[in-house]
Design a protein that fits this description.
The structure holds 2 protein chains of 2 kinds. By secondary structure, chain A is an all-alpha fold. Chain A is 72% helix and 0% strand. The relative contact order of chain B is 0.19. Chain B folds into 2 domains: 1-31; 34-180, Glutaredoxin (3-Layer(aba) Sandwich). Classes of the chains: A mainly alpha, B alpha/beta.
Chain lengths: 151, 182
């Protein structure tokens, strides 16, 4: 049952990505492709070459190319820097891995700090509780006063 | 945390931040402005090498292979309007000076190679042209826009001034004549 559920969830998540790969839109690709002259994504650029790349993408979509095929053709013309996302191999893999390493290290440091902080507080709380206890003499006098008041 | 360890970590953090800041400052100060800045100071730097695919025929062309000739190096793109108006002058110069050991070389950059070939056909370009789609050669020369033209002497060093923007017939002739004297 769990396996079925997991498969259904995985399929539900994968379906839009698959549709986007097979039937990409210009809007999607405009955010994933860089303008070579202005070094921004196409959706931020009005440069002549950005317009030309938009035309090219539109023509390739009409011809039935997948997103990967269009990107490959652009890389063949303009090099890998035309893609907004770095590739997932070689040195560029660092760009994908390092943020997770940073998050992991940050979590470890935060955990250590929280642990130290909670340990430092324990004796302080115990001390505060001890200090809050009444002096026996004072305690006796309070009891006497209360008994007199009740009587 | 022991006091010495804490102090060490703090010092390390400050050192890392200071190092990154120094790196940023160094990068800004020593930004690669290409050979154009040396040329502007009156120096004659060696023309940065390239080895790129040809647009006018199959194979590759390397600048080093043209040593001993005067090279008019023109950076252009098919989507650049001034490139369209100057191209007849470059073609005329190629026709006029080729017998004297002058080669006009076009470097089409940040452009589709198909568009570049269409441009060359449409404008009757017969001089050698190469394709630098990613524009890797541009920073070496300090190119800031298209078109730009450089003159390379027979010794492989740049000569005269770079011409940023559309080149006039006079500037082209003067640049070639000057390079021919090297």
């Amino acid at each position: 049952m769990r396996l079925l559920l997991a498969t259904a969830v995985a399929l539900a998540l994968a379906a839009p990505a698959l549709a986007s790969e097979r039937h990409p839109t210009l809007g999607e690709l405009e955010g994933e492709v860089m303008c070579p002259t202005c070094k921004t994504t196409l959706d931020q650029s009005t440069a002549p070459i950005a317009d030309r790349i938009r035309q090219f993408i539109t023509a390739r979509i009409a011809a039935g190319d997948t997103k990967s095929e269009i990107k490959q053709k652009l890389v063949a013309q303009f090099g890998p820097a035309v893609l907004a996302e770095p590739s997932k191999h070689g040195f560029n893999l660092l760009a994908w891995v390092l943020p997770f390493v940073g998050i992991g290290l940050g979590a470890v440091v935060l955990g250590l700090l929280a642990w130290r902080w909670s340990r430092a507080r324990e004796p302080a709380i115990a001390g505060a509780a001890a200090a809050a206890r009444l002096d026996p003499e004072l305690d006796r006098r309070v009891d006497e006063e209360l008994a007199r008041f009740d009587g | 945390m022991p006091r010495r360890l804490k102090l060490g970590l703090q010092t390390l953090s400050v050192a890392v931040v200071a190092g990154l800041l120094a790196l940023l400052v160094w990068r800004v100060v020593h930004q690669d402005k290409g050979v154009a800045s040396q040329l502007a100071k009156g120096k004659r730097p060696v023309a940065p090498a390239f080895h790129l695919s040809r647009l006018d025929r199959s194979g590759k062309l390397s600048l080093a292979g043209l040593r001993g000739k005067v090279v008019v190096l023109n950076f252009w793109a098919s989507w650049c309007n001034p490139c369209k108006t100057e191209v007849p002058r470059l073609e005329a110069a190629w026709q006029h000076y080729r017998s004297r050991g002058v080669v006009v070389v076009g470097v089409d950059a940040q452009d589709f190679s198909g568009d570049a070939r269409t441009f060359m056909r449409r404008h009757g370009v017969t001089y050698p042209n190469v394709h630098d789609g990613p524009g890797d050669v541009l920073p070496k020369y300090g190119i800031t826009g298209f078109p730009e033209t450089f003159f390379v002497g027979r010794d492989g060093r740049l000569v005269g001034e770079r011409v940023a923007g559309e080149i006039s017939r006079q500037a082209l002739t003067a640049g070639i004549e000057r390079a021919l004297k090297t």
